[in-house]
């Protein structure tokens, strides 16, 4: 495997997991009620989203840019509060990230390999932990800016904690629906996610967030 192909397989897999966790946590923080806003319209938009949106489905297009490389993938995602999501990257490689509220699975179809971790452990060192669980997005982030661009209302968030893995997050809303996200990490790598065919509050069964693996798949870090 040449270095470029290897990079494209390794980097998207690791960042996709972080981004899937980030998105699900931002969209579906453990607290059902939004905390009071003190930062005007942007805070009100974010609070309304956290309070009113309990599940979501969408198609996504994700681009990851580093200093001299970029990678693009497309797929679908589903979220359901609390802490359930299904992130399916279809191109260029098929990768599934599935959380049932207790465990997180990452399954690389081409490699026939899957990893399993407890939900809390898998995000303990990631930005998502500031948003997940019982604290909610407003405890871990400050709303530092908001503006309108390309027909969307953009909200910029910055982590309150020192030493966070990323420096900023932009979320573009159309009404209550998120349409675009941009994450800048501590190395100035930029991950952009464009959402399409967004459906808010669909009725999603818990079975959507279960993963059945073929018998030939190697499982790392747990049992089937």
Query: Average pLDDT value?
Result: 74
CATH class: Mainly Beta
User: What is the N-to-C order of secondary-structure elements (H for helix, E for strand)?
Assistant: HHEEEEEEHHEEEEEE
Provide the CATH topology: outer membrane lipoprotein receptor (LolB), chain A
Global geometry: globular
Residues in helix, %: 10-25%
Sheet/helix structural class: alpha+beta
The tally of structural domains comes to 1
The CATH superfamily is: Lipoprotein localisation LolA/LolB/LppX
Strand order of the largest sheet: 7-8-9-10-11-1-2-3-4-5-6-12
Instruction: Please tally the helical runs, counting DSSP H or I stretches of 4 or more residues.
Output: 4
| Percent of residues in β-strands | 35-45%
Named at the architecture level, the CATH assignment is Clam
Quantity of strands, as a count: 12
Distance between the termini: 29 Å
Query: Low-confidence spans: pLDDT under 50, at least 5 residues?
Result: 1-38, 124-135
Q: How does this model look, in words?
A:
This protein is α+β, with helices and mostly antiparallel strands and 224 residues long. It has one domain (3-220): outer membrane lipoprotein receptor (LolB), chain A (Clam), CATH 2.50.20. It contains four helices and twelve strands; from the N terminus they run ααββββββααββββββ. A twelve-stranded mixed beta sheet has the order 7-8-9-10-11-1-2-3-4-5-6-12. A hairpin with a 3-residue loop joins β2 (70-80) and β3 (84-91). The radius of gyration is 17 Å and the shape is globular. The chain starts with a helix and ends with a strand. The model is unreliable at 1-38 and 124-135 (pLDDT under 50).
């Amino acid at each position: 495997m040449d270095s470029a192909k290897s990079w494209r397989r390794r980097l998207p897999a690791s960042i996709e997991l972080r981004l899937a966790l980030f998105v699900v946590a931002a969209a579906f923080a453990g607290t059902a009620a939004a905390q009071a806003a003190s930062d005007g319209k942007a805070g009100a938009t974010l609070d309304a989203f956290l309070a009113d949106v309990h599940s979501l489905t969408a198609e996504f297009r994700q681009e990851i840019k580093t200093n001299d490389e970029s990678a693009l993938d497309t797929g679908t995602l589903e979220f359901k509060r609390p802490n359930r999501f299904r992130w399916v990257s279809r191109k260029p490689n098929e990768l599934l990230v599935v959380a049932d509220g207790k465990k997180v699975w990452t399954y690389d179809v081409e490699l026939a390999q899957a990893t399993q971790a407890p939900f809390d452990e898998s995000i303990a060192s990631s930005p998502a932990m500031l948003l997940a669980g019982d604290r909610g997005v407003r405890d871990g982030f400050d709303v530092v800016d908001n503006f309108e661009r390309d027909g969307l209302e953009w909200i910029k968030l910055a982590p309150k904690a020192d030493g966070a893995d990323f420096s900023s997050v932009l979320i573009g809303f159309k009404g209550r629906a998120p349409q675009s996200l941009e994450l800048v990490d501590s190395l100035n790598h930029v991950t952009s996610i464009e959402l399409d065919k967004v459906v808010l509050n669909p009725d999603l069964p818990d079975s959507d967030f279960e993963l059945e693996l073929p018998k030939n798949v190697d499982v790392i870090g747990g049992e089937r």
